[in-house]
Specification:
Elements lengths: L7 E5 L1 E8 L10 H5 L17 H14 L4 E6 L3 H8 L4 E3 L1 E6 L4 H9 L3 H11 L4 E7 L12 H5 L4 E6 L2 H9 L6 E9 L4 H8 L16 E8 L6 E7 L4 H22 L5 H12 L8
Length: about 290
Amino acid sequence: MPIKIKFQERISKLHTYSCIFGEKTIVHADWLPLILDWEPRLNPESDTFGDEHREEAALYLGFAWNLSQGLDHFVTPIYYRDDAAKRTQLPFDFINWEYRVDIDHLSMFKSMMRFINGRALLFLFNLLTKDLIADKGFIPARNCVQVSPPPSVWQEQHRHEAGLFHIQTLTELGKLHQALLADATSEINIFCLKPGRSMDLLSFLTAPTKPDLSKFLKEGEIFIDIVLGIDMGYRDSILIKSSQDIGSKIRSLSLQYEQAVSEYEYASFQFQALEPAFARLNELAQGKTTNQL
């Protein structure tokens, strides 16, 4: 069945668009050459989106990048600041706040219903809550710190600070996201701003009081949060906020990426080697369809 990318729209201070994807993978066709015939001589730079959930990462990150063309991109990788810095070799600024959403906050109630075998209740519950995102907003930042060996003095000093990276290409964004794939979920914040706003953003995210996104985003700027569910039972989501109505642009881009996924699935049966397969994956990330190739 072809995928549908459908965003729920609402206005609460900002124009907000949210999309939750189910627990199943977005691209259903198996990429057998990648799984069974790994080529040791493959150029590692070709692998932009990682080993697992690569199609989903390409789709979500590419969608965000395409939506925000012409803007500067500043990214916060949730919880894995140092891993992202190591993976990308990019500098970053320390910040005090990170934006969080939770799409599986009701999983405990679902588990209880399964336990009592309340199938009718579970069906109704899923129907009513399938598109709900718990938008937590900004919370105090935190960073993963090693347990053994004990963390260094520097790690202890900065364990309650996230990192803000200036990302200049989709490839850099994909590499940064690869650093987050070792957990049950990954999450990133993407601030898409007009040129010259980097210091404004840094001041905004290092403020002593909780930031208010509605007071920061200017016309034409966008905030995007992406969650990728990695372990079984976790789902994916995209949350977009803007000071102006960009619904028509999001709907148009959604249709474009639906077509791109459909064409990618068809092409995946013809992959015989990794290099052309990765090239086709990059085209999926860009939302390219046959009339654009």
